[in-house]
Amino acid sequence: MDRSIRDKVVVITGAAEGLGYTFADVYLQNGAKAIAILDINEKLGTTAANTLNKKYGANKATFFKCDVITDLESVSKRVIDTYKTVDVLINNAGILNDFAVKKTIDINVLALIEWSLKFWEHMRKNKGGNGGTIINLASIYGYRVDQYLPVYQASKFAVMGFTKSLGHQYNYERSGVRVYAICPGFTETSLVKEVRVSNEARLQQDMDNFLKQQLWQKPEAVGRAAVETFSRADSGTAWLIEGNKPIVQV
Q1: What residues in the chain have per-residue pLDDT under 70?
Q2: Annotated catalytic residue within 152, 170, 172, 180
Q3: What is the CATH number of the domain that holds 19?
Q4: Which of 47, 77, 103, 157 is such that its CA lies 20 to 30 A from the CA of 143?
Q5: How many domains does the chain contain in total?
Q6: For residues 240 and 217, what is the distance between their CA atoms, to the nearest angstrom?
Q7: Does some domain include residue 247?
Q8: How many Å apart are CA 133 and CA 88, to the nearest integer?
Q9: Which domain holds residue 72?
Q10: How far apart are the first and last CA of the chain?
Q11: Residue 152 catalytic?
């Protein structure tokens, strides 16, 4: 398959800020034809699209207001009507809040699965599509376990299982759609600025101390890795991005 980002139409959920915006920026920098920015935050999404268009040229980025839980059918139709063919979907939208169990599963798992299946059907060559790539945002917590954030960790284990199954070589050979995951380590985004794990002061203090000891990285490191994996990753694989170190398949 074509593993070049150049001339690709890319849809990114949760792309108004953080890692999603970083992916939009680096993919345009590497020649993407157009980016569809999907986000629930209209103000930030509009600003993100305007900033990218000033940087890379008119109509390179378009904002679609979107709640990934409820707006799949309406927004995916608008996106496909706009671009006709979507080449890449990056399922980036996610939350980190173990106090919101249902919302965590709805966004991190159910929405990711439903958006993947929608665009897998759109892309698959054995149904008239052109093939394509789906990239799912997992986490180091998609395969590592510690005593903190059990709900978040459960959601990311689900992402890994779904990705490896849908991306299985059997499915890739019949569909022409590559599906793989990237697993960022601790990254300096708004998602992790104030991680709350418990109302127990001792447990929260332990978590705060734990976070200080981890290998942290800037969003730009994950963006660079998202470009590198696009050229290297086989379907059904997952890639660790941690502490600015070289990417590793896990």
Answers
A1: 186-201, 204, 207, 210-217
A2: 152
A3: 3.40.50.720
A4: 103
A5: 1
A6: 12
A7: no
A8: 5
A9: 9-242
A10: 22
A11: yes
